Amino acid sequence: MLDLAKIRRDFPVLERQVKGHQLVYLDSANTSQKPTAVIQAMSEFFLTHNANVARAMHTLGTEASEAYESARAKVASFIGAQSSQIIFTKNASEALNLAAYTLSSRLGPGDEVVISVAEHHSNIVPWQMACERTGATLRWFDVDDDGFLDVEKARAQSLINESTKVVSLTAMSNVTGVRFPIAEISAWAHVVGAVMVVDGSQLVPHESVDVAALGADLMAFTGHKMCGPTGIGILWGRYELLESLPPFLSGGEMIEKVTMARTTYAQPPYRFEAGTPPIGEAVGLAAAVDYLTEVGIEEIAAHTTSMTAYALDVLAAIPEVRVLGPSSGDRVAAVSFELADVHPHDVMQVLDARGVAVRGGHHCARPLHERLGVQSSVRMSSYLYTTPEDIDALGNALEDTLVFFSVARGSRG
């Protein structure tokens, strides 16, 4: 069991007052808060070691390069991988764009790319663009009314077939918190020779991940949802696959040799890291990995599962709430819902006036909202620092919201 009082002391922002109320932060699926250890690690780097990597051979340059490569090694170990398989990007969206752009070299008319209706826009739009460039066809998994991937329907339709070249799925929905059966889909994709791409942005912060067990060929995730800084993302890939892919961006450090006639490219991962990388951000991400490892990722998983279950109970006690996805069961961290006929943006504003931070909108997943029959939703999401009192504050604020809009409507006659 997590020592919540101790953990919360590591996150000074949680002591803030917002509009006269104690901050209740329930928007970690959007971005997590950062512990002091991460902030201090980045500050220490910039104060005493700041230099560019792989260029300056002086002491500071060597220290910066060592810190950057040490971060790569720590991230690799965190997901059961090797350093040579870790590419640093600026976020998960760029990592997925890297995957889509480089894999486009394998696509053409008659080929198919398979995604799902439940994807974040960052795992939809790059594949739409890839198909537009290459003449390939985009197809997608449906979900059932609870948001679970409809594998039976997909098998009946032979959704993944000999024409499928890429399958790209989220491991966990950022709207419903539902896990997808990635290992099962990976096995299916590999039978037909397709590349399996996974968006692990919601999964990696909450659960122990072994990329080999997932069966993925490429996996994207991001630092800022796992207690790390913004400005750094990760694309993991099987090394043999990375070796076969063309560069994504061009410039310094992704080259082996440049002449006026031609250029040869560096080996992975450096082939995909053009220009000055996010050095300080990598240092911060390494500190975040250390922090999560020390707390215990399995303990974090148990805690967020517990907080999600408690949130579902609190929301079930409010008749005007309709939860998207399953009301219990296999879901983690994220719970999206409607509150009567109050627009999610209005709910979000009233909650913010009471110090409760949630997200309102379609959470960059508009197709999933349309599939579930709603225009948009309110989303609360928990993490290792979330307490039952936070969830209670959410419930009380939602009751206040219902009263507020009832009074407002009554005053308009």
Structural class of the helices, strands and pairings?
Answer: alpha/beta
Oligomer: single chain
* Proportion of helical residues: 25-40%
Proportion of β residues?
15-25%
Structure in words:
- With 413 residues, this protein is of the alpha/beta class.
- The protein has 14 helices and 17 strands.
- The chain has helices at 4-9, 36-48, 59-78, 92-103, 125-134, 151-156, 182-191, 211-214, 239-244, 279-295, 297-316, 344-353, 366-371, 388-411, and strands at 17-18, 21-22, 24-25, 86-89, 112-116, 137-141, 164-170, 195-199, 218-222, 233-237, 255-258, 263-265, 321-323, 334-339, 356-357, 359-361, 377-381.
- It has a seven-stranded mixed β-sheet, sandwiched between helices. It has a four-stranded antiparallel β-sheet with strand order 13-14-17-16, with helices on one face.
- Helix 8 links the parallel strand 8 (195-199) and strand 9.
- Helix 2 (36-48) runs antiparallel to helix 10 and helix 11 (297-316) runs parallel beside helix 14 (388-411).
- The radius of gyration is 22 Å and the shape is globular.
- The termini are far apart.
- The mean pLDDT is 96.
